[in-house]
Amino acid sequence: WARNGSPLPCCSHRMEICRGLRSHLITLLLFLFHSETICRPSGRKSSKMQAFRIWDVNQKTFYLRNNQLVAGYLQGPNVNLEEKIDVVPIEPHALFLGIHGGKMCLSCVKSGDETRLQLEAVNITDLSENRKQDKRFAFIRSDSGPTTSFESAACPGWFLCTAMEADQPVSLTNMPDEGVMVTKFYFQEDE
Q1: Stretch among 42-46, 96-100, 130-134, 170-174 having the lowest mean pLDDT
Q2: pLDDT single digits (tens) 108-137
Q3: Cβ–Cβ under 8 Å, residues 109 and 115
């Protein structure tokens, strides 16, 4: 520096380079910090549980009978038996499904040649998309116009379904287009 406080001609150019590098370094650090906070999963789920109403295209709603999820036509005082579906989204189109405030979850279980839907006493908020053993609880949601179908993530090709007849168990089918089982549902957030 000169005695009058101004930079020497040779240092002036270096100062500009340093200032420019410092500015770029700060910008880079801010970008990296911002990226880290967005990309790093936090210790808790970012998605919260939501309740939905579900009914098939034949207007059958879900209810619990002898600890089994059943689809039927509920009327009069029985409409209070309707089970809301508790949902925790895990990816844009994947979700966990439960009932009873998320205390019982729907799962796809394969045993030998048999693939079946079952209710398990598991808290939906304890499930993780990153744990292999929790994959049986995950379903892929596919919307087609006003209706939705749910395919098992653990058993691809198996879809949540109801029977054509009322008061039959909710189950899974690997023949969604055969017309024997109903695989299209109306799925609406409960208010």
Answers
A1: 42-46
A2: 999 999 999 999 999 999 999 888 899 999
A3: yes
Backbone angles phi, psi at 132, to 5 degrees: -55, -40
Backbone dihedral region for residue 173 (phi beyond 0: left; psi -120 to 50: alpha; all else: beta): beta
Residue 140 β-bridge partners = 94, 151
Question: If phi over 0 gives left and psi between -120 and 50 gives alpha, with beta otherwise, what is residue 97?
Answer: beta
Judge contact between 174 and 115, C-beta under 8 A: yes
CA-CA distance, 177 to 31, in Å (whole number)? 49
90-100: average pLDDT: 94
Q: Does pTM surpass 0.85? A: no
Sign of the torsion angle spanned by Cα atoms 62, 170, 65, 102: negative
Sign of the CA dihedral 137, 142, 148, 149?
Answer: negative
Work out the number of other CB atoms within 10 angstroms of the CB of residue 72: 20
